[in-house]
Amino acid sequence: MGTIGLAMLTLFVMLTLESFPAYMEAGMDVHRWSWVYFVTFVLVAAFMILNVLIGIVLNSLEEARELERRRGLGIAADDQIAPAPVAERIAMLRAALSELEDELRLRARAESGPGPR
Questions:
Q1: Cβ burial 51-85 (10 Å sphere, 16+ → b, else e)
Q2: Mean pLDDT, residues 42-65
Q3: Looking at the predicted structure, is the pLDDT value of residue 43 above 80?
Q4: Is 109 left (phi over 0), alpha (psi -120 to 50) or beta?
Q5: SS3 state of residue 111
Q6: pLDDT tens across 57-95, in order?
Q7: DSSP per residue over 19-69, as a string?
Q8: Is 101 helix (H, G, I), strand (E, B) or coil?
Q9: pLDDT band of 20, cuts 50, 70, 90
Q10: In this structure, are residues 34 and 28 in contact, taking their beta carbons and an 8 Å threshold?
């Protein structure tokens, strides 16, 4: 007879895929459809682990981007300042949008050619 703690330890070991075939074989001895549980558990667990790793990578990239922004502003990396304010980001996006609109207008004029005036 097992305990909750032993069951949790077994699930953690299965998460690492160590001795997975032995656990699945033991489950198959109990019921022939137990493979559905084992395969589903491994797929869901692998998906969750992958999401955690992707989250860690994205967080590291965001921190690196913030360090580069601080270097560009001439601020020491260890100084405690807030990230770029929303108003600053909106101003940068508006400037980029204005540049794109101007470029589209110039392309439209160039494609239409010199027309009668």
A1: eeeeeeeeeeeeeeeeeeebeeeeeeeeeeeeeee
A2: 92
A3: yes
A4: alpha
A5: helix
A6: 999 998 888 888 878 777 766 666 566 677 788 888 899
A7: THHHHHHHHHHH-TTHHHHHHHHHHHHHHHHHHHHHHHHHHHHHHHHHHHH
A8: helix
A9: confident
A10: yes
pTM here? Answer: 0.51
DSSP 75: -
pLDDT at site 91: 85
Write the CA distances from 44 to 7, 15, 28, 92, 113, integer angstroms. Answer: 17, 10, 20, 41, 59
- As its CATH architecture, domain 4-82 has Orthogonal Bundle (1.10)
Q: Would you list the domain boundaries of the chain?
A: 4-82, 84-117
